[in-house]
Amino acid sequence: CEAIAVQTMCDSCNCKEFLPNPWKPEKCINCYHDHSPNSQTANGQQGTAKRMLFPVASTRNIEASTSTEDNLSMTPPSFPKRDRLPSAPTSSNSTLNESTSQSSRRPLPKPPGKTTTKPPQNENQNEKAASHRNHIVQELLTTERDFVKYVKTLIAEFLVPLREDPRGAKNPELIFSNIEQINGINDVLLKHLEEQMASWNNDSTKIGNIFLEVGPYLKPYYTTYTEKYAEAQSHLTECEKISQFSNFIETVTAEKTKLTVRSLMIMPIQRIPRYNLLLEDLVKHTPSDHVDMHDLEKALKKMKSIADDINTAIKQGENRQKMLIIQESISGGHKFLEPHRQYIRDGQLLKVCRKTNKMRWFFLFNDLLVYASFGALTSTIANRFTFRGSFKISQLRIEDAVSLDAEKFQLGFQIVSPTKSFVVLAGNMDEKVGWMLSFTTAISNHKNKRQTFKLAQGVSIEEEAVAIEAPIWERDSDTKNCRICLDSFNMVKRRHHCRACGAVVCGSCSSQKMALPNLKNQKVRVCDNCFATPEQ
C-alpha cells in the first residue's frame, strides 16, 4: 500500500520537512515555530505552512525537489532519520501554553443560588423505617378484614344451607370442621386491631400485645382444623359425587361467592404463616428502643411455635390418612393404624422363593414391615392386596445379597428376621439403594428410640442377646444333589429344606426334628449336621 507524506515549509527558516502524520503538522521540525492558524512566528507575523500531499512508495526514495514552489510537483528528496527530536526551546509561548492548560483544569464556579443542606442519614433511615412499619400494620389490618369476610362467606353460603338441607350428602358438616370457632377468635383479633389503628401513633401504639393475648386461642382452633383438613377434603370429594350436592356447590360459587369451596377452605391453613411473615417484617423495621419491640419479639416467637405445631399436625394428618388407605387396601381385617406408627414408603419388590419368584408389595413403617400379594383388580381401594406377612423392625436385619451370588443378586438384598428370611430384587440400582437406605434408617431410629425410652425410665441399657435368625432357603433349581450324601434328586428322592440352615437335603439326611427358639420352640425338620451340632 502507499503512504501519505506532507511537505511543510516554514517562512521563518525556509526549511522543508516531511511529516508522517498529515493531520498534525503543527510545528516546524527545525525551528519549532507553531504553524497552527492562531499562532505567531518569532518576528511577530503569523506562521504559515504549506501542505502538499505526495504518494510515497514503500522504499521511500524521494528525490530532492527544486527551491521554487512551481517545482514542488517534482519528487521531493528523502529526509534523514533522526535518532531523537531536539528539545524544544523555552519561550513565552510554552509558558503561555502551560498556564493555559493549568487554568483549564480549574473547577468551574458554581452558579449562584440558595445552598441546601442534606438531612442526616439517620433521620432518613428512621423516616423510611417508620413509613414501612405503617405500611405493614395497614397490610395486617386489611388482610385480616379480608380473611374474616371470606370465613363468614364460607359459613353463610355453604355450611348453614347444607346444615339445614344436606342435599343428599351424609354429614356435610364434617367438610367444614371447626370453621365457626376460627371465625369467632378472628373476629376478636380483628376488633383489637381496628381499635389500635383508630388511634394509631407510630411511636406509641402497640401491636405485639394483641397477638400475645389472642395467640393461646389460635393454637388449638387452627391445629384442630389442620388435623382434620385432609379428612374434610376426602369427605367433600365423596359428597361431590352426589349430583344434587354438586349442583348446589356450583350454583353458589357462580352466583354468590365467585370462589370455590376448596379455595375458601384452604384459607385458614394459609393464615398462620401469613401472620409470621408480617410480624417478622414488623420486627425488622421497628427500632430496638420502641415501646412495642419486646412484645413483638415474644409474639413472633409464639406464632412461629404455633406454625410448627400446625405443620406437625399436617404431617400427622397426612400420615393417618395414608395409614387408613393402606389398612383398607389389605384384606384380612388387619389393624395397622396406631398413634405412634408412621408411614415411610411402599412399593413392589420381587421376592425370591424356593420354586418361583413372586412379585410382592411391601409397606414399610417406622416399627413394622408388611408385605402382601396382589388381589383382584377392582376400581376401589378396598381389598386390593392380600396379606402375606409382617415383621417387627426391631427384629430385622438388612444385608446386601451380592455376597450370596454376585451375578444373580446384583439388584437384591436380604431381609433377615428370626421367623423368616428371604431375598428381594429391586427394579434397578437406584431403587435398591433407596430401599436399603430406608430400611437401615428405620432400624437405627427405632433402636435409638428404645434406648432413649429405657434411659428415661431409669432402666440400664445392656447389650441385647443376638436372636437366632431364620436362614434363607436355597432354591430348588439351584441344587441337583443332596448337600450331605450328594445323591441326585429324582421322583423318589425328593428335596427337603433344613429349617436351621436352609440347605436342600434328601429325606434320609433330614429325618430328625429339633425345637428351634426362633420358631417358639416348635419341633421342625432339620438336617443331620444341624441335629448333631445344635449349639451351632
Describe the largest sheet: 8 strands, mixed
Low-confidence stretches: 1-7, 16-25, 35-104
Q: How many angstroms does the end-to-end distance come to?
A: 102 Å
Order of helices and strands: EEEHHHHHHHHHEEEEEEEEHEEEEH
| Helical content class | 40-55%
Kindly state the number of beta strands.
Answer: 15
Class by SSE composition: alpha+beta
Rg calc: 48 Å
Contiguous helical run count: 11
Strand content: 5-15%
Enumerate the strands of the largest sheet in spatial order, edge to edge or round the barrel. Answer: 4-8-7-6-5-11-10-9
Which overall shape is indicated by the principal axes computed on the Cα atoms?
elongated
Overall mean pLDDT score? 78
Would you kindly provide a brief summary of this structure?
The protein is elongated. The strands form four sheets. An eight-stranded mixed beta sheet has the order 4-8-7-6-5-11-10-9. The protein has a three-stranded antiparallel beta sheet with strand order 2-1-3, with no helix packed on it. A two-stranded antiparallel sheet has the order 12-13.
Topology:
Elements: E1 3-9, E2 16-19, E3 52-56, H1 92-104, H2 121-164, H3 179-198, H4 208-227, H5 229-239, H6 243-257, H7 261-265, H8 267-284, H9 293-329, E4 330-331, E5 343-352, E6 358-365, E7 368-374, E8 385-392, E9 397-400, E10 412-416, E11 422-425, H10 429-456, E12 496-497, E13 504-505, E14 512-516, E15 522-526, H11 528-532
Parallel strand pairs: 4-8
Antiparallel strand pairs: 1-2, 1-3, 5-6, 5-11, 6-7, 7-8, 9-10, 10-11, 12-13, 14-15
Q: Can you put this structure into words, describing what you see?
A:
It is a single chain. By secondary structure, the protein is an alpha+beta fold. Helix content is 40%, strand content 15%. It contains eleven helices and 15 strands. It has helices at residues 92-104, 121-164, 179-198, 208-227, 229-239, 243-257, 261-265, 267-284, 293-329, 429-456, 528-532, and strands at 3-9, 16-19, 52-56, 330-331, 343-352, 358-365, 368-374, 385-392, 397-400, 412-416, 422-425, 496-497, 504-505, 512-516, 522-526. The strands form four sheets. The chain has an eight-stranded mixed β-sheet. The chain has a three-stranded antiparallel β-sheet with strand order 2-1-3, with no helix packed on it. A two-stranded antiparallel sheet has the order 12-13. Strand 6 (358-365) and strand 7 (368-374) form a beta hairpin. Helix 8 packs antiparallel against helix 9 (293-329). The radius of gyration is 48 Å and the shape is elongated. The model is unreliable at 1-7, 16-25 and 35-104 (pLDDT under 50).
